[in-house]
């Protein structure tokens, strides 16, 4: 029992945080939302160079994985900077393909960041299907590579999330292997991303309420303001160990519990962040909106609260 | 990141489980908040202590097992999963003992701790006063210097367990001239049956005397019952309350067991949809508290101290406890209002959680000011 990140894992988080801070992600996100992916692709390459996608790819295919704890560490940072693109989906694709015969054909490219993958969710929508070089369609009879052009882009409440329906059929990549393992990994990555989104919203809001003055004092000195932020902090800090516990076990119910808790905490923090920023937070031009809208979208991506609770109630959580 | 217990810790768990299987009373004891129940719980403390299961984390020479924080968490998981009785010695064990380990003398530890472990001496708290609740430093009870000790006078209130307990501990103003409320306070232990002490039991919502008022009129406290230096009581007490809010007062094992029972109740009622989300959320929150505690214990073992983060714990477990019991009463339907069920007793107890041990508003202030760095303001 030593339920702590080690020095190397913390250094990995710090290095990603520094790299993403320097990358000016708000500008990247805004370009991505307009359908201009050049800066986003450049950032994608740097994230791959840092080894993030390799964490879901076995060493024999050019990766470093499977390393779910480091993956969670990385995705917290990706969420903290609201990095756009099919990040969790690329992780899911690596797991889907790693379980099947064509692993050697695709995995090295995914690990190296040369390929961008998306996966159709059970709803039929795939994130950034217009950008991804690999579009995977899990179907009852097997996993397909969707080769025809995807449908038109539909806007998400999060402008950086561009949803498309994938063209059915295409190339059959494999049959038989279940999709559960990939879903667990995507869900873990999404949970981590949501936690990062929540942490960033909290940080930005704490800074804001220290600077914003009304009635002659910082609004952060008012108890009504403090208590909402204290609740956000508490919700996020209790989501964190659930996330890492889920990464350690990779049990579907634990991952579902982490996904639900991290997304609820992030969403609650988003509501607090919006409220405490006042009208400026409600504007599209202010960067806070980039995190606010993502918190809402991630809540239902890859496992709604209802689905996550189902897994907890049917499979149960670990006791000891 | 490792969440598995060592084989030695698992052996410890198995030994605890085996002992509890053999000893936990089959029928629940009468309520702790009655004279009869208090006596029965005291006997249970003695039974625990006889086989060294009363205070596993303490050093062996005081009746413990030197078990460490991780094994204490394991013990608590087994304890509550076994349906074992509430701990009448809780206030002393969770609050006074850590203070004595940190600030007491060896003589005090040797004298006070062993009878605390056996339930022979049960301790009550004496913090709050009529005009000093959340603003504890406003307390007015006095300690006046006398030959060989102190004479304490004043009124302490909401003193948990004091209706039937033996001794109490708390803060008294020994130097009223400092001009600063947090200074000139002294941490004292005293006998609830000493001359000058009048205990007036106070009924909680269900009428049971869960706490009491303590009228103190020049009660003699010998110097040997002062903890730490006179005048330094505030700092000493605050370290104790951090422990209280943190892990030691309400271990995760308690809520894991309650959440599992809630799930069983829900299933027994046919898994009704109206309570589904709340049952799932209780299971998840109990697990979250458990892994949060393992993370905190890991930090402590790595040399860190639990500081203001304990305030997050207190808000979390007190709200979880209430949510759990409210859900259970809702699941019981119209029978939920019956007062003699296990869930209703727990519900009445849970209602107090957000109030005692520092109200949740005080905890949120601490989280906001000391963890988030927000400026102090008017409360």
Automatic annotation (TrEMBL), chain A:
Xref: InterPro entries: AcylCo_DH-like_C, AcylCo_DH/oxidase_C, AcylCoA_DH/ox_N, AcylCoA_DH/ox_N_sf, AcylCoA_DH/oxidase_NM_dom_sf
Residue ranges of every copy of the Acyl-CoA dehydrogenase/oxidase N-terminal domain listed in the record: 7-114
State one Pfam family annotation: Acyl-CoA_dh_1
Report the cofactors.
FAD
| Keywords recorded for this protein, A-Z | FAD, Flavoprotein, Oxidoreductase
| Residues covered by the Acyl-CoA dehydrogenase/oxidase C-terminal domain | 182-304
Extract the coiled-coil ranges from the record: none
Q: Does the keyword Metal-binding apply?
A: no
The reply on keyword Manganese is no
Gene3D superfamilies cross-referenced by the UniProt entry? Acyl-CoA dehydrogenase/oxidase, N-terminal domain, Butyryl-CoA Dehydrogenase, subunit A, domain 3
Superkingdom field: Bacteria
Originating organism: Streptomyces tricolor
Record's family? Belongs to the acyl-CoA dehydrogenase family.
Q: What is this protein called?
A: Acyl-CoA/acyl-ACP dehydrogenase
From TrEMBL, chain B:
Give a yes or no for keyword Oxidoreductase in this entry: yes
Q: What does this protein need as cofactor?
A: FAD
- Using the record's annotation, list all stretches that form the Acyl-CoA oxidase/dehydrogenase middle domain: 124-218
What name appears for this protein in its UniProt entry?
Acyl-CoA dehydrogenase family protein
Q: Which InterPro entries match?
A: Acyl-CoA_Oxase/DH_mid-dom (IPR006091), Acyl-CoA_Oxase/DH_mid-dom_sf (IPR046373), AcylCo_DH-like_C (IPR036250), AcylCo_DH/oxidase_C (IPR009075), AcylCoA_DH/ox_N (IPR013786), AcylCoA_DH/ox_N_sf (IPR037069), AcylCoA_DH/oxidase_NM_dom_sf (IPR009100), Mycobact_Acyl-CoA_DH (IPR052161)
Give the family this protein belongs to, as stated in its UniProt record. Belongs to the acyl-CoA dehydrogenase family.
Q: Which organism is it from?
A: Streptomyces tricolor
* Residues of the Acyl-CoA dehydrogenase/oxidase C-terminal domain: 231-372
- Per UniProt, residues of the Acyl-CoA dehydrogenase/oxidase N-terminal domain are 7-120
Which keywords does this chain's UniProt record carry? FAD, Flavoprotein, Oxidoreductase
Matching Pfam families: Acyl-CoA_dh_1, Acyl-CoA_dh_M, Acyl-CoA_dh_N
> Mind telling me which SUPFAM superfamilies this protein's record contains?
Acyl-CoA dehydrogenase C-terminal domain-like (SSF47203), Acyl-CoA dehydrogenase NM domain-like (SSF56645)
């Amino acid at each position: 029992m030593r339920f702590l990140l080690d020095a190397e894992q913390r250094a990995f988080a710090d290095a990603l945080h520094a790299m993403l801070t320097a990358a000016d992600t708000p500008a990247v996100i805004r370009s991505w939302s307009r359908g201009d992916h050049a800066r986003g692709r450049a950032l994608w390459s740097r994230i791959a160079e840092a080894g993030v996608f390799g964490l879901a790819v076995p060493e024999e295919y050019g990766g470093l994985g499977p390393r779910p704890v480091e993956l969670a560490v990385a995705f917290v940072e990706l969420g903290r900077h609201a990095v756009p693109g099919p990040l969790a989906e690329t992780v899911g694709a690596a797991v889907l393909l790693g379980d099947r015969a064509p692993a050697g054909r695709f995995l090295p490219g995914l690990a190296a960041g040369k390929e961008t993958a998306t996966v159709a969710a059970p709803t039929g929508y795939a994130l950034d299907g217009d950008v991804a070089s690999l579009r995977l369609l899990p179907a009852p009879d097997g996993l397909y590579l969707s080769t025809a052009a995807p449908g038109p882009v539909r806007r998400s409440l999060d402008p950086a999330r561009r949803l498309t329906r994938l063209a059915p059929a295409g190339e059959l990549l494999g049959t038989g292997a279940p999709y559960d393992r990939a879903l667990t990994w995507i869900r873990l990555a999404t949970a981590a991303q949501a936690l990062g989104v929540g942490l960033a919203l909290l940080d930005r809001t704490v800074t804001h309420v220290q600077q914003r003055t009304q009635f002659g004092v910082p609004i952060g000195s008012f108890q009504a303001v403090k208590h909402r932020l204290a609740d956000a902090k508490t919700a996020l800090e209790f989501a964190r160990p659930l996330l890492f516990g889920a990464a350690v076990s990779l049990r579907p119910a634990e991952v579902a519990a982490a996904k639900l808790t991290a997304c609820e905490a992030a969403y609650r923090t988003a509501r607090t962040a919006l409220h405490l920023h006042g009208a400026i937070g409600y504007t599209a031009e202010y960067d806070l909106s980039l995190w606010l809208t993502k918190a809402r979208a991630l809540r239902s991506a890859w496992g709604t609260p209802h689905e996550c609770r189902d897994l907890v109630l049917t499979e149960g959580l670990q006791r000891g | 990141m490792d969440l598995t217990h060592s084989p030695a810790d698992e052996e410890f768990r198995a030994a605890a489980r085996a002992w509890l299987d053999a000893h936990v009373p089959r029928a629940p004891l009468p309520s702790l908040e009655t004279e009869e129940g208090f006596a029965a719980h005291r006997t249970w403390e003695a039974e625990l202590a006889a086989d060294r299961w009363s205070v596993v984390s303490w050093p062996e020479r005081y009746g413990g097992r030197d078990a460490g924080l991780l094994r204490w968490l394991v013990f608590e998981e087994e304890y509550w999963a076994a349906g074992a009785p509430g701990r009448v010695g809780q206030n002393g064990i969770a609050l006074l003992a850590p203070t004595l380990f940190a600030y007491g003398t060896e003589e005090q530890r040797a004298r006070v701790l062993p009878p605390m472990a056996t339930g022979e001496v049960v301790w009550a708290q004496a913090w709050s006063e009529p005009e000093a609740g959340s603003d504890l430093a406003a307390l007015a009870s006095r300690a006046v210097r006398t030959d060989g000790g102190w004479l304490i006078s004043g009124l302490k209130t909401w003193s948990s367990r004091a209706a039937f307990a033996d001794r109490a501990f708390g803060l008294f103003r020994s130097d009223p001239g400092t001009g600063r409320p947090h200074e000139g306070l002294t941490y004292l232990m005293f006998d609830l049956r000493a001359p000058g002490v009048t205990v007036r039991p106070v009924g909680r919502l269900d009428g049971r005397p869960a706490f009491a008022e303590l009228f103190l009129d020049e009660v003699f406290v010998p110097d040997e019952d002062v903890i730490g230096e006179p005048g330094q009581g505030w700092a000493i007490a605050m370290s104790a309350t951090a422990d209280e809010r943190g892990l030691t007062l309400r271990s995760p094992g308690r809520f894991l067991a309650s959440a599992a029972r809630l799930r069983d109740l829900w299933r027994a009622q046919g898994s009704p949809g109206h309570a589904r989300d709340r049952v799932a959320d209780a299971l998840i929150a109990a697990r979250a508290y458990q892994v949060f505690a393992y993370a905190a214990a890991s930090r402590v073992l790595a040399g860190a101290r639990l500081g203001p983060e304990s305030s997050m714990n207190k808000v979390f477990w007190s709200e979880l406890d209430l949510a759990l019991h409210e859900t259970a009463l809702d699941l019981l339907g119209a029978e939920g209002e019956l007062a003699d069920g296990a869930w209703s007793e727990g519900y009445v107890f849970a209602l107090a959680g957000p109030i005692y041990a520092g109200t949740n508003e005080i905890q949120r202030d601490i989280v906001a000011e000391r963890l988030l760095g927000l400026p102090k303001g008017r409360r």
